[in-house]
Amino acid sequence: MKRLLTIVVSSTLLFSIGYLVAMSVHRSGAQPGGGGYGGYGGPPKSGGATSRPAAGAGTPVVTATVMQESLQERVSGAGVLEAEREIMVIARVDGEVKEFAFEEGAHVDEGATLCVIDEEPLAIAERAAEIDRDYNKVEYERLRNLAESSRGAVTQKEVGDARVAFERAEITLQEAKLRRSYARPGAPFAGVVVDRLVEKGSYVRAGDELFRLGDLEPLLLRLYLPERDVERLAIHQRTELRSQRDATTVAEGRVIRISPVVDRESLTVEVVTSYESVPDGVRPGSFGRVDIITRTHQDALLIPRGAIVRGESNDPFVYRVGADQAAERVPVMIGFEDDTIVEVKESALQAGDIVIVDGNRSVKDGDRVHEYRRLSDRSQAPASSTPGG
Hints:
The chain is 22% helix and 38% strand. The chain has four helices and 20 strands.
């Protein structure tokens, strides 16, 4: 029995040792994965598998193509859209609301009747004023004719008093007609009913709010910009209103007002932009981003900001990739620039040249490079200074 147990234990130990040895051999023969080129995290997913460069193939770099396009300098800001005009229509007489003609969102013409307040008492008052006017008119004419035909029968004072009474009655009648017109409040301008604050049958008093009316064409957006940015602005400069959701341009407008003073608390200047036509989904209260186009550079050479390298004397230059895959140092003069893009001026660069964007701190003039990835043209377009046609 002991001999059988010894055989079983020995067999188990031999099998375990053999399995461990086999797994060790298998792992030592497997190829290592990952790696990547330098610090760039491996080949780009969108480009598929990229073979590792052979020894001596050059330093892996990310490149971009020099573009030649129109460049628009912009000043950007954000704010809330508002109606150019928005007023509250109030009651000017007391009475019961008999009917209303418009709901929220309805377009109304200038002078359109918004609602009707009980005008029967006002009509009675107007009729009484009309009767009084007619009586005083007849009495005045009678006395005047009598004074002209019979000297001494009527004094000039009596005629004058009759004329004053007639004129006062005429004024009272005009006031009664005016008060009756208040029973039908109208729109002071063409616009949209923003809010209806009364119901049919409700009793209102003079001064109560009835409707809120807005003129939605154009819409305004107020920006509060630093003083240094306002120096580049002018009345009538073109603006682009961008959607908060996806940053697409939804409307074009213009600058209509620039405040002449700087706010003491925020140290900003108010700039008002106007938009005549906007999509249906854009309305007062919507948040929007605005680009004010201050200047356009025609046929500008554009490169990503990351391509710029500065030497010991702080002079800017770039590395251009030559036909032999060698890095060539090219001095440049920088024009307009922002966080992502740079305009190149007075340089040997040309449109279509390839420049190093990432890895340019690891190469020297004449070094061979390996193009690890090339940025697409669209990736060079910044949000604040978009190259355009």
